[in-house]
Design goal:
mainly beta, lipopolysaccharide transport protein A fold, 30-stranded antiparallel beta sheet, 13-stranded antiparallel beta sheet, 65% strand, elongated
Length: 701
């Protein structure tokens, strides 16, 4: 097929036309080189109209337009492209059936058009008008980041204005999932850009039985490449409006910094303190041999992170009910290092089965650490000082719908101040047949009880002890040795066998001081005279392995006070993707298990993993957990349950266990969205504490 070029007159007009290139502005003086090609070209002198048909292409360095037919009206200076029209430019493509373009105004109009920008943002409209170099106006339009004729989600607007690389501003908007309307917005501003620029980020939809339906929105504003700020506004139908902000700074010579604060005044709650919040900040600086670290974490209650899915700081608050604040400055040279640190921890402690106490332990303290090492030795010293305070709720719970909330009425009833100094010398030794490392040291402590807490000094005395009117001080020596022999190996064809001998030796003198409060009693230095030999056997096959170790710590041990010592047993068995770990501590005098843990992990199929763990202590607390994780394609299913029992028999602990927490979560990862659906329930044998149903829908863009 022969290709024809337009006449000189049409070619001249084509050279100056910018047509519908999405990124080019109309210019009166045009110097861009372009060429219009077609299979056939005709001109009607009477109507001053030129027609190009068959594989029509207009192309220059900036854009390319393709169509089945092009008509140029010389008197109106109007070009009309018809039939399978595509306009390709840097980062975008327009497809439509017809485009009308005015050479005088530089504007154009298309019908039933689609735009794809940066291979991510997709627009469609029954009527599309080009209003500027990078801007369009849409009538009866849609917007999504999903591909396909029936996208998973989309915004449908009566009227919208789009500026490429900037924002979509729409009116009369419905948010649709699979073409089903689920939300209405009278006005919407949505970012259509990938670079760091100011604007409203993609919102997230949530639904929770505690908070109701929620819309989480964020305004983002960068300050160059190293700093940015975000402002949060989350609206929940049941609890109200949560506001907050975040500042982030990359390490550009002044350190990395992140500050985050969120708060809400809950509107529908029966709690006596509806004001809930979390503030988190983190700072880190590394310069030459100097290290500076800081962290601040404060929350109104331990359930804030769980109720509002707060991920601004570490998961300690959610998982362990603990928040931490610290500041540290350190120097690490070639042969020595030094650190100074101040730290405060807050821990919310739940009773194991009743959930009736809300105890808050705070431990602010300061510490200094100095370390010096040579080629085969290490000397370190530390100094700590601080306090422990224990508070208890007078009204632990208030009923709020289907959950129980902790009351803020707390009062101090136990407190104790302390200081501690430790000096340690550590050295490893090794030969061809055995290896060993040992450390010796001294530990000195001073305790000063407050607010009714008492300390009692026993008749036995440590290396040194001094008692004042309000304080008790003591000095204790300690020695630790770790030794292991070289392993002996034997090949049996079907398996390889190895055997080795290990032992630990620990000595720490008792402070002979007890506290009236059991929690504080565990903080005082306890005696530790222990020698623990262990025999370790291991068999390794082609697709399996088995290991058994047995030992007996000659006591008193940290687990009990019998003089003969408990027997330590451990078995690890792995076959393919299946693994079992069993560890127990057996008391030969009482002829019973005093501590036991069993754990299994089984990858049933690729992407399907089952895990279970059970722990038991003779003091009457038994805990169990079962987790199943299924991953298949874009889907992920997580099921878990935690159980507890108060039984003094390891056999009855299994049969008498009752669920304490259950959770089921389904996650779907799609190319243009993510959804999390879950149910979580915290309960006790006597009362249901918390039940949460949540749905979180996040758009990708």
């Amino acid at each position: 097929m022969i290709r024809h070029f337009l006449s000189a007159r049409l070619r001249s007009l084509a050279l100056c036309s910018t047509l519908l290139a999405s990124h080019m502005a109309y210019a009166d003086q045009c110097t861009t080189s372009a060429a219009l090609m077609a299979d056939a070209v005709t001109r009607n002198p009477a109507t001053e109209q030129m027609i190009a048909t068959g594989n029509v292409t207009l192309e220059n360095e900036e854009y390319r337009i393709r169509a089945d037919r092009a008509e140029y009206f010389e008197q109106e200076r109007l070009i009309v492209f018809r039939g399978n029209v595509t306009v390709d430019s840097v980062g975008s493509r327009i497809t439509t059936e017809q485009i009308e373009y005015s050479l005088d105004s530089g504007l154009g109009e298309a019908t039933n058009a689609q735009i794809v920008h940066d291979d991510t943002y997709r627009f469609s409209a029954t009527s599309l008008r080009r209003t500027g170099a990078l801007s369009y106006q849409l009538e009866s339009g849609t917007f999504t980041t999903c591909a396909g004729d029936c996208p998973d989600w989309q915004f449908r607007a009566g009227q919208a204005e789009v500026t490429q690389g900037r924002y979509l501003v729409a009116r009369d908007v419905t948010f649709r999932i699979r073409n089903v309307p689920v939300w209405y917005f009278p006005y919407l501003v949505y970012p259509v850009k990938n670079q760091r620029e100011a604007g409203i980020l993609i919102p997230a939809l949530t639904s929770s039985s505690n908070n109701g339906t929620g819309l989480e929105m964020t305004y983002f504003h960068p300050f160059g490449d190293a700093r940015d700020i975000s402002i949060f506004a989350n609206v929940y139908t049941r609890t109200g409006v949560m506001l907050g902000g975040e500042y982030r700074q990359a390490d550009d010579g002044f350190g990395a910094l992140a500050l985050n604060h969120r708060f809400i005044q809950e509107s529908k709650t029966k709690s006596d303190d509806p004001h809930r919040y979390r503030t988190y900040g983190e700072y880190q600086l590394r310069r030459d041999a100097w290290m500076v670290d800081g962290r601040y974490d404060a929350a109104s209650d331990r359930d804030f992170a769980h109720d509002y899915n707060d991920e601004s700081g570490p998961e300690w608050l959610r998982d362990a009910g603990r928040s931490e604040t610290l500041a540290s400055v350190g120097y690490q040279g070639e042969a020595w290092s030094a650190f100074v640190r101040g730290q405060s921890q807050q821990t919310w402690i739940h009773e194991a089965t009743q959930h009736r106490d809300n105890r808050l332990t705070t431990a602010p303290y300061g510490a200094a650490f100095l370390e010096r090492w040579g080629s085969d030795w290490q000397l370190s010293g530390s100094l700590d000082a601080g306090s422990y305070r224990l508070r208890e709720s007078t009204l632990p719970f208030t009923t709020d719908g289907n959950r129980l909330r902790y009351s803020s009425r707390n009062s101090d009833y136990d407190a104790i101040d302390f200081s501690r100094a430790t000096l340690t010398l550590h050295r490893p030794l090794a030969t061809r047949y055995w290896g060993m490392e040992w450390q010796v040291g001294l530990q000195g402590e001073t305790w000063k009880p407050q607010d009714g807490t008492t300390l009692n000094a026993l008749n036995e005395k440590p290396l040194w002890r001094a008692e004042g009117d309000e304080t008790i001080s003591y000095l204790l020596p300690f020695v630790q040795v770790r030794w292991n022999s070289a392993r002996l190996y034997a090949d049996h064809g079907w398996a390889r066998h190895s055997i080795g001998l290990e032992f630990d030796a620990d000595y720490r003198q008792d402070s002979s001081v007890t506290a009236a409060q059991p929690l504080f009693d565990t903080l005082l230095a306890q005696h530790e005279h222990r020698f623990t030999p262990r025999l370790v056997n291991r068999l390794t096959g082609t697709n399996w392995y088995a290991e058994h170790h047995i030992g007996q710590p000659f006591s008193p041990t940290e687990f009990g006070n019998n003089n003969s010592g408990e027997i330590l047993n451990g078995i690890v068995l792995g076959i393919g993707r299946f693994r079992v770990d069993w560890h127990s501590l057996y008391d030969p005098n009482q002829k019973e298990v005093t501590r036991q843990s069993v754990g299994t992990s089984w990858e049933l199929l690729q992407g399907v993993r089952l895990g279970a763990v059970h722990t038991y202590e003779r003091r009457g607390v038994s805990n169990g957990a079962l987790d199943l994780r299924l991953t298949r394609g874009q889907w992920e299913v997580i099921l878990g349950t935690e159980m507890t029992a108060e039984e003094n028999s390891v056999k009855r602990a299994f049969s008498e266990m009752t669920p304490r927490r259950k959770h089921v979560e389904v996650i779907h990862h799609a190319d243009c969205w993510q959804m999390r659906v879950g149910v979580a329930e915290d309960r006790t044998p006597a009362i249901e504490v918390d039940r949460t149903v949540y749905v979180k829908f996040t758009l990708a863009g």
